Amino acid sequence: MTKFQAILALPHLRIQNANAISSPLTHGFPSITAFTGLMWALERKLTQAGVPLRLNAVGVVCHHHQEQITQGYVRSFNLTRNPVGKDGSTAAIVEEGRMHLQITLVLAVSEKAAPGASSALVQGNDAQLADWAKTAGRIVEGMRVAGGSVLPSRPAPGKRVRPWMAVVPEDPDAAATEFRRWRRQWLPGFALVGRDDLLAQRLQHLRATQPDATLLDAWLHAARFNHQPLPNADGTPAPDGKVRWGDPLRPSGSGWTVPIPVGYAALAAPHPAGSVRNARDPAVPLQFVESVYSLGEWISPHRLHSLEQLLWYAETDDAQGLYRCRNDYRPGPPVGGGDNTVSPAESLDDTPDDWDDAEAYAYT
């Protein structure tokens, strides 16, 4: 990931009617590519506004989500009834999935400094950082976020809703201390991180009994619950004769893992610019692609140990035709519970003595 100098936080954005269908095979939350696309669009608009910032990566923390679906065992999307056609016939229903969100976006920022000019992303330049953050927040208010509309934020006790920027210290210890302060502002909520390692482990598990298993088989196997009879810890049958059922690969405390799309893979070589009719931009080459899938996990921000674990960034491999998003999260050793759990002393009580809760839970 490209080195960054600061972060830009857009806290508690209220998004109405965002796209809940993230790919042909998944739904329930917008794709991470929707947020990287927002990042690049925001960078272009910041440049037009005279803000010399480069946005390198984006992190997503979800505080609330409400998918617009019918309730019950079998669920379906709430669809709109379109107006009738010119001849009075009923218009076709287009399958659209929508959801309401409240999210915090954390953007990794570097400066587009002119040669020989002094950098503005330095400690103590709070007025300039606040002005850039205000400009970014005003621009985002008029943009689409994952296809949804941004609603005005509602100031409330315990929520810091105004955009803000902060410089990341160069000293690793100081950066870790600052990150512990920042992550408290994103509670309660869940951060989306990448878990490619779980997909590799699932493939290894399947190939123990199915040598011909593929990554797609592993992804489909991990995307569902696979219930089977569970033996007791000592291998003896239950005294009451009852059989416990469960998924041995999803024990209690294993985490909230989900199948997610992470990018695109090319289906053919790129077509020259202007050679494909009705292309969105005839000035650039066009390439047909399909979705690339992996596994992700929703974890509480206080379980993150560095800013890099939160951020997603784009990775391009033109030779293989692979355009995907990467995340540098690596789970720590399990402590006091299941996979990816840490002790309360490590997660919440590692705050420095001079920490003031008012800095995180600001009424702004």
Any overview of this molecule?
- The chain has 364 residues and is of the alpha+beta class.
- Helix content is 19%, strand content 27%.
- Strands 1, 2, 3, 4, 5, 6, 7, 10, 11, 12 and 13 form an eleven-stranded antiparallel sheet that branches.
- Helix 4 (196-207) crosses helix 5 (215-222).
- The protein is globular and about 75 Å long.
- The two termini are 32 Å apart.
How is this structure best summarized?
This protein is α+β, with helices and mostly antiparallel strands and 364 residues long. The chain is built from 6 helices and 13 strands.
Ends distance: 32 Å
The structural class is: alpha+beta
Rg computed from alpha carbons, rounded to a whole number of angstroms: 23 Å
**Main beta-sheet annotation:** 11 strands, antiparallel
Mean pLDDT: 83
Continuous helix count = 6
Beta strand %: 25-35%
Helix content: 10-25%
Q: What's the number of extended β-strand segments?
A: 13
Cα shape: globular
The low-confidence runs, each spanning 5 or more residues with pLDDT under 50, are 334-364
Order of helices and strands: EHEEHEEEHEHHEEEEEEH
